[in-house]
Protein 1
Amino acid sequence: MIKKTEGGVTAAKGFAAAAAAAHIKYENRTDMALIYSEAPCVGAGTFTSNVVKAAPVLWDKEKVENAPYVQAVVVNSGIANACTGQQGRRYCEETAQAAAQALRIPEDAVLLGSTGVIGMQLPIDRIKAGVAALAQKKAATQEAGHEAAQAIMTTDTHPKESAYTFEVGGVQAVIGGMSKGSGMIHPNMCTMLGFV
C-alpha cells in the first residue's frame, strides 16, 4: 500500500538538497537548487519531444543515456539556457565542472536544469558561485528539500513537492520528488521540470 508522507526530494535516505540566491534574474529570493545523492544512482529521464530543446535537456539526455551513474542535479531559475547555441552548451559544461569539483564527483554524474527566460545567456560566474554555495549548504533535511523546491519556481504560486512510502519485498521504501510548472506541460513537456 502506498502512503503519502511528509517531505519531498530529501525524503528518501541518502538524498540531500540545498537552495541558494545566485541573483541570476531575481533579487531577494533563491534561484538555484541542488539535489545530491550520497551514493551513485541509476539515472532515467523523460525529455520533451519538442523540436527545440534547451542546452540542459540535451546535456541530461546524453548523460542519462551514456554516463555510468548520476549523483547530482543542479537547477537554476530565471534564465532557461534555451536557444543559446554553443555558448549555452559550454555553460552546461562549466556548470557541471563546477559542481563536480565542489561535490568531488565526476562531471558526467551531474545533471542540469534551467527554467525562465528563453534566449538569454546565463551569468556563468553567478552560476558557478551559486554551485559552490549549494555544495556547502546541502543537507538531508525536509527543510532543505522544501527550500530547493521553492528555488526552482518561476510563475508557480507555490512549491510542488511530495513523498510516499510503500513496501517492496517486505522492506519499506521511500520516494520523494519536486517539480515546477504552472500549466506548463505544453508543448510536449517543454517547460516542465520534475525530479524524483
Protein 2
Amino acid sequence: MAKKQAKKQVNEFDQTLSTSISFYEKNKKAILWGIGGLLAIIIIALLIHQFYITPRNNRANESIFPAEQAFMDGNYDKALNGDGTNMGFLAIVDEFKNTKAGNLACLYAAKCYAATEKYQEAIDMLNKFDGCGDAMISPAATALKGNCYAELGENEKAADLLVKAAKDADNNTISPTCLLQAGQIYIALGQKDKALECFNQIKSKYQQSSVYYEIDKYIEAAQ
C-alpha cells in the first residue's frame, strides 16, 4: 500500500514537472522578456539613484551651507535671496525640490520671514515643508506656524497648532512652552477650561522643564 502511494506521488510529481516544463517551453519568450524587463527596471533605478539623485542631493547640501551661515548671522535677506554668488533658501527650494536640503530650506525660509514679521509668507513656506520625521524639527515647525497665526490674530488656529506641536514633540523642551503659549491664548479667547487643560498637562507630565516651576500661578489665574 505504501509503495503504491509512493509511486502515485512520484507520478504526480512527474506530471507536474512535465506540465511546468511544457508551460515554460510555450511561454519561454514571454517569461524571459518579463525577467529582462524587471532587471532593466532595477538597473535603471540604480543608475538614476547613483548618477542623478545622489549628486543632486550632494549639490543641494553644498548649496544650503552659505544660506545657513547667513541665517545664523541674522542676515535674513541674504539667507532668503542669496548674494549673487551663493543661492538663498528660496532658490534652493525651487532648484532642489524633493531633496532633504530643499525641504529643510522651506523651514529656514519660513524662519527668515517670521523674523522679519512677514507671517503669511512664513506660513506659506511652512505649508511646503514636508516634515522630516524628527521629534524636534517637525513639532518646532508646527509651533512656528502656530505663532505666525497668533501674530495674524487667528488665535483659535494658533492655539490648536501649538497643542498639536506639544503632543507631537512630547518632550520637556518643546511641549511645555507650546502648552503655556496655547493656554495663554485660550485665556484670551475666554476658554479657561482649555487653558487649564494645557497648564495641568505641564504640571503632570513635564516636571523636568523650567516652565513647570511657575505653572501654578497660571493654573490659579485660569481658575
